[in-house]
Design brief:
The protein is an alpha/beta fold. The chain is 36% helix and 20% strand.
Length: 344
Amino acid sequence: MRKALIAALCLLTTATATATGCGAKVESSPDAKSSGAKSPAVTLTNCGREVTYDKVPERVVTNDVGITELMFALGLEDRMAGFAMPDDKGDLDAVPWKDGYDKVKWLSKDQLTKENVLDAHADLVFAGWNYGFREDGGFTPDALKKLGIPSYVLTESCRNGRSGSARGIMPPLEALYTDLTNLGRLFGVEKRAAKLVADFKKRIADVRAKAPEGDARPSVFLYDSGQDTPFTSGRYAAPEQIIAESGGVNVMHDMADSWTTVGWETVVERNPDVIVVCDYGDVSAEQKKKFLLSYAPLRNVSAVKHRRVIALDYADLVESPRNPAAIARLGAYLRTVSGDTAKS
């Protein structure tokens, strides 16, 4: 994963139907293992390329929390052979998909490796660039293809070709909806995916309808980690639209990348009204907040002067089914400060 997770979705899966979005009935997951019928090939567009999958995967291995929970949100635990994820991504007992974590094997508390994948007899690896896939170590879709194992790349992480490993090819919520739709097609749960996307869009629209407008929209800086140089979000990572739909403006919107590093002088110059801290890792959110509020170069930044710092979990801030709940939480916070920021 990168160098350096609530939501309150209603998602109850039964043997014959699934309730998603608090009451909408959708189809159950097909059982290719018991039917004996050969499933038709499915062609999807992933990172701008057409990829054909010869069958419905039955032993999917995922990397990291957001990607894993996309599978859980679609009720696809029975199609998974395991996941890899560090144990610093928050309290998993409180998430709507606790049953998924209970059922699916935790393969590694580090990133996926070829050995993990082969040992799990995986028939699909669902990961992303810097969310498992990496040139260093040779864990790439091409390397897995040589082993006869197909891949699906998280759309938020698709490389955009602008500069080396810069990531992001579409707005982050569009990336989320694209992946849910693609997974719905691949696993034969299109109605389930469509209802989930429709529910997400409605919940986000409800927040946007209450959001401040014009000069009342607070400017927001996303702080992931780092003291010498801060790691933050450009316009292709999930915080961009989490901030925008909540009623704020990402001060790093002009950066055509997803997660990236900037200089503190840029943060000072752009003078954010609010700082959002990404809560994960060995350094707690409280420790990160303490650093920001005591770091001398930031003393005149509006967010620091007025102590407007809010923490969201890691899984709120990467592409995941927790994004709508994160938007609702941040939206409520920004509404409490929008009047003050408009005056300041």
